[in-house]
Amino acid sequence: MRILELFEQSDTRHMSAEDVYKRLQTDGLDVGLATVYRVLTQFEQAGLLERHHFETGKAVFELNQGDHHDHLVCIQCGHVEEFYDPEIERRQASVARERGFSIHDHSLQIYADCIRESCPRKPIIKENAENPLTQQ
Ligand SMILES: [Zn+2]
Ligand SMILES: [Zn+2]
């Protein structure tokens, strides 16, 4: 239950098992990583959490609130942002329809470099931004 509360109260909606484990440690709860992983998997099977396998290497979990959204994922630091774009949704449906498909479900992940201060890749992006080739 403490783990579900973590997801409800955290401003980070997407967390890996390690993230959850670290937060529990910070709160003084001595729970092993294997236990955290098992509980997350149980919540996923019960439909309370959704698991994503982004290309950042580790699975991340979020509360399953039944709302559809897509994701922007930073390939440097793993930061995840959600978005919903009605135009993209409509286009996907018509692309499928034109090709003779009827969509059950879809997931769209955009892999990118985030430009947050805390991102380890940020200085390199800044450097690129000063490249005269990109200043036309
Ligand atoms: Zn999400
Ligand atoms: Zn980043």
Describe the secondary-structure layout:
Layout: H1 2-9, E1 15-16, H2 17-26, H3 33-45, E2 49-52, E3 60-63, E4 70-74, E5 80-83, H4 86-98, E6 109-112, H5 122-129
Parallel strand pairs: 4-6
Antiparallel strand pairs: 1-3, 2-3, 4-5
Helix pairs in contact: 2-3
This protein binds zinc ion (2 copies).
Question: How would you characterize the overall build of this protein?
Answer:
By secondary structure, the protein is of the alpha+beta class. The protein has two domains: 1-65, Arc Repressor Mutant, subunit A, CATH 1.10.10.10; 67-131, Ferric-uptake regulator, C-terminal dimerisarion domain (Dna Ligase, domain 1). It is 38% helix and 17% strand. The protein has helices spanning 2-9, 17-26, 33-45, 86-98, 122-129; strands spanning 15-16, 49-52, 60-63, 70-74, 80-83, 109-112. Strand 2 (49-52) and strand 3 (60-63) form a beta hairpin. Helix 2 packs across helix 3. It is globular and about 55 Å long. The mean pLDDT is 87. The structure holds zinc ion (2 copies). The site of one zinc ion has 8 residues, from loops. One zinc ion is lined by residues 74, 76-77, 79, 114, 116, 119, 121.
In short:
This protein is an alpha+beta fold and 136 residues long. It has 2 domains: 1-65, Winged helix-like DNA-binding domain superfamily/Winged helix DNA-binding domain (Arc Repressor Mutant, subunit A, Orthogonal Bundle); 67-131, 2-Layer Sandwich (Dna Ligase, domain 1), CATH 3.30.1490.190.
